[in-house]
Structure formats: structure tokens, C-alpha cells
Write a structure and sequence with these properties.
By secondary structure, the chain is mainly beta. The protein has five domains: 67-158, Cadherins (Immunoglobulin-like, Sandwich); 166-267, Immunoglobulin-like (Sandwich), CATH 2.60.40; 275-383, Sandwich (Immunoglobulin-like), CATH 2.60.40; 390-487, Cadherins (Immunoglobulin-like); 495-606, Cadherins (Immunoglobulin-like, Sandwich), CATH 2.60.40.60. It is built from five helices and 42 strands. Strand 40 (571-579) and strand 41 form a beta hairpin. The protein starts with a helix and ends in a 23-residue tail after the last helix.
Length: 709
Amino acid sequence: MPERLTEMLMDTWTPLVILWITVLPSIYMAPMNQSQVLPTGSSSGLKRLTEEQRVLNRSKRGWVWNQMFVLEEFSGPEPILVGRLHTDLDPGSSKIKYILSGDGAGTIFVINDKTGDIHAMKRLDREEKAEYTLTAQAVDRDTNKPLEPPSEFIIKVQDINDNAPEFVDGPYHATVPEMSVVGTFVTKVTATDADDPVYGNSAKLVYSILEGQPYFSIEPHTAIIKTALPNMDREAKEEYFVVIQAKDMGGHMGGLSGTTTVTITLTDVNDNPPKFAQSLYHFSVMEDVALGEPIGRVKANDLDIGENAKSSYEIIEGDGMDIFEITTDAQTQDGIIRVRKPLDFETKKSYTLKVEAANIHIDPRFISGGPFKDTATVKIVVEDADEPPVFSSPTYLLEVHENAAINSVIGQVTAHDPDVSSSPIRFSIDRHTDLDRQFNINADDGKITLATPLDRETNMWHNITIVATETRNHSQVSRLPVAIKVLDVNDNAPEFASEHEAFLCENGKPGQIIQIVSAVDKDDPKNGHYFLYSLLPEMVNNPNFTIKKNEDNTLSILAKHSGFSRQKQEVYLLPIIISDSGNPPMSSTSTLTIRVCGCSSDGIVQSCNVEAYVLPIGLSMGALIAILACIILLLVIVVLFVTLRRHKNEPLIIKDDEDVRENIIRYDDEGGGEEDTEAFDIATLQNPDGINGFLPRKDIKPDLQFMPR
């Protein structure tokens, strides 16, 4: 068998020079579960390996030629011999030079270039680097020419148990509900070991509990922590401190270990009912306390926390169930007792209530443990307070006729002091609600009287405030609104709803309705208005017009004949008497103005003035005045234009015959007579402008022209 293996290797490696590796027996024999180095090109080396294989009974293991092994953390006084490179071409004359290259060559691994021995110069740590890939080659020492192709091989660092397990995520925190059954899952921890998990048991971990028993247990291989004790009560102990150990080498002697802590907190469940701190509570309250005001607090304590400790309160029995109410304070979980209805010391002086507190959230697992509720008794004493007067009625509505006499009694209000002392009451009117002082009140008996006349048509309602004051304590005051309704009496006569003016066409026909009029009455009878219309007695036989009552309480005016003329009579006045149905009845006379107008054939009014007869057809007086004004304006414009033209044609140059030689200049000096011819210059007298050396020219027009006057 060895010879056959040698032949196979020789057939496989055809180079003339064969490199083989010799490994120290103590080195490659130590890790028997690893692949060993297979020497190449040497039958003796192969024989030695075969003998060792036969001794170790490893006949089924495959051998890999291109691997070397070295133990990590191995240290000694000298470098560690990892293996040896050798070729059959080396006769021992030192003509062959061995060269090593690759990972760590020259620093970590050094080769003896003569013998081919490879040494590890440093301590190796598999956790830092598990293997190194190197290349070996044999060259001629003199020429450095390669004697064979380079051969690549691997040096693997074999693991030793030099790393303790570590809990990377520790310390741990976990929770589990209180009262859980045995075996309830709590949490899972995980430890890691940097050693090789493939080699031996260096990374095989086993978990155990060092502290925390007998409450919890841990699975040795899965590291799952579970409860080991039933019915653990959070109210007794809430937090547990557990120490977990992880040990390698399968937990055997000599293994390394690491620990972590797990803080386990029991979460609350509703396993405790609420409990009142005392079975009887006493409270006192003044009878004048405001509605909704709290008068006391009760408290049911619950050993649970959070939602499990929330309780609701309810009044389940007592003589004040409709007088008081109880609510829950969301912050303190107290029961707050409040007043729902007014209290009266004189009516009832004390109340007894039975209050119940019950959990809101009940866990069905613990329902058999008993009712999650508790009861307590509350006694409330009502104390007397000085109360203001109380009116016999909360509101008053009084009625009075508008023609009621002054000082007549309209109505009466009453009030009393509810206190035991029963102080007398005095009444008054708040004058801010009766600025016109139309009413008075008797201070002793509360009778309201009329002070000034009333008019329903002016103000139908009066709202005043009555003030009741205790005579012994003026600070105790009550106020009450009183509404006074003024009732109607028939004191107003009906009249036309508006000023009517009727128009009658000259071409109208007999019986034609001229106008429909309506009437109004300020009074307000219960059965509504009903008016009667009539003409004055002296006009009952009016030859021109007649009246007709309509069903809708209006009146129609009709013409008796045709042929009305504006020239004959332009306006007619028709007095009409309007009466109501009151008791006593009231009436008034209103006059209707009827104007005669010219109308079209369709009955449309066109003109109602007499002047229309003298005007052209289709033109009114206003249109004629406008036309006349335009004509006058045109005439004025023409006259002005002609005048301006005339003045424009007059010459501006002074003619010779218009010379002003006749102008006389008067001096007060007395002349010398006819013989004095040298005293004055006759030329100056004839032309005064020449004095200053300026003589006007008459042959041209002047630059400055004056408008003729």
C-alpha cells in the first residue's frame, strides 16, 4: 500500500526536482483530529507516516499535503519549528537556497535557506488570525534560478482554550408577571466564546445559575430562564437579582467561565381588591354650600399599581342618594363627594350614605379570590347658615289695565326668612329697573301700586326687580324679577292707514271704484279690529260719490256718475267717519281728496291740472318754459355777436377832422395881453404831447388799442 501511494504521487508530480516537507512528529501528531502534512518525493517519509497511521488506527482519514499546523500561544526560549522544506536535488552541498514568501514571511515565519526549516518567531493568536498562506520555492544559490515551480501551502494556527465565555449584551433586565406558574418563560441570555467552535470543547458552553434560586432556573444549553417557584407576589418582593454563569469545555473541570447578571422584575396583575382605610367617615357642610362643591374625600387603597389599582366609587345606599354624588379623582384615586341639590338645615340636618369602591379592570384568573370591591359608611351633618329671604314664588307676572287709577294696587309679592330666627322682611324696588318711577311698593307687605299713568300703546311690558332685605341683617338680600303686563282698553279712535289722494278720470263711468282705503287702530281688541265707515250726515246724499264696505275691513270709494270736468271742478273733498267696535266705540273723521284728471282711453292718468287745456297737445308747461328759455338765449347771443362785429369795423386811427385842437389848457397865470407874444408857445398849446418831445403819428395804428366804451 505505501509503495502504491508513492507511485501515485510520483506520477502526479512530474517536475525533476521534488520538494518535500518534513514535520516534527511532536507537532503534527498533537492535533490528531486535523489534516496532516503529506511529505512529497520521499518514500522514507511516506513510510514513517504510514507507520504512525497504523499505530493511531487512522486509516480512514484523508491526508492533505499542503498544510502545516502550529499551536497558538505557544512560547519558549527559542523559536518554534513549524516544519521543514526539502528537495531530492539537495545533495547536502548547500547549493540549493530555500525561499519563503506570503503572509508573515520574514516577520512571523522565518525559513533557514540552507536546511529549509521554518520557525515561528512570535506567539500566535488564532482569534486574531487563524491561518497563513505561504509560498515555498527552491532556487540555485549561485544563480538564483528556480529549480522547480513555486509551491503554495497553508500554516493553520491550532486553537487552545484560552478565551473565557463573554456575555456581550449583559447585564440583562427582564420582566415576568407576578403569580406566574412554574416554567413561565422569563428571558434568554447568550454568551460567546472566541475559541474555535470546531476544535474540541473549547467553545462548547453550559449555563447555570449561581444566584437566584429557588425562584428561577435556566436551561443548560439554550440559556432560557424560567420561573421555578409558583405564586411569586409582587407586593411581597418586586425585584430579583440573578447571576448566570457560562462555562466552556462542556462545563467540565478546567473550563473557563464568564458571568452576567439578570435583574428580573415582577409586573403587576390585579390580584388585590381595594380596601377603605376606615369603615366610617364623618363630614359636615354648611347648608348654603354651592352646588357641585366638594364636601369630603374617601380613599380605598389598592396594593396593585397602574391600571390594576384604579377604582370607581358609587353611592349604593342612603337617604341622600339624590342629594349627593361621588366621583373619582383621576390623579389620587380618591372618591370626591359633592352636593347635587341644595341643602336646607331647617328641613334635614344629617344624611347617611353607603359608598362602594370597585376595581375597574378585573383579571378573570383571580376572580375566585373574592369580590374586588369594598364599602364604607359616610355620615354628613348639615350646619345652619344665615340665609337670605326666600320669595314665595320664583317669578311673578302681574297685569294692569292702562286706564288704572293712580295708587291702585297692581299685585303683591311675599317673602320670608328661612332661618329659625325668622327676621322681618322689607321690600323695595330697584330703581335701575324703574327709571320713570311708574310703580311703588309697600315696604312691609309687598303690595305694588301704580305711581304714574300707563299707556299700553307706548309700552306694553314693564320689568322691575323687587328687593327683599332682612331687617336684622341687611347683608341678607334677595332679588326677584316681576313682569307687569299693561292690558288694553279702547282709548284710541281708528284712522286712515295713510294719507290717501284719489284720482278720478274725466271719462270715468258710473260705479267705477276710485280708491280703496284702509284704517288702523292703535288699540288691540281680543277679537281683532272691525271698522264701520260712513259719510257725514249732511253728505249722505252726496250726488257725486258713494262708499262701500269690503269684507277685508277696507272701504271702496265709487263715482255715482260720469262727465266730471277739471274746468268745472278740479278737486273734491269727501269726509268719511271711521268707527271701531270697542266698548265704548271710538270714531274719527278723515277726509279723502279726490282730484279730477285727464286720462287715456285705457284709464291711465295723464294730467290733473287745468293748465293742460291751454298747452299744445303732448307738451306740458315745463316743456314750453324750457323752449322759451332757449329762444331767449339764442336772441341774446345774436345781439352780442352783432354788437361785437360793429365795434370791430370802426377805424382806430384818428382822423384829421377829429384832431383835439379845441382842447383848452387853463393856467392861472395872467398874460401880458395881445402884445405879449413870447410868453407861450402856441404850438405847445395846440399839441400838449409835444412838450416831452413825443408827437403821436397819425399815419399808423398804435400798438396799444383801447376797446370802445
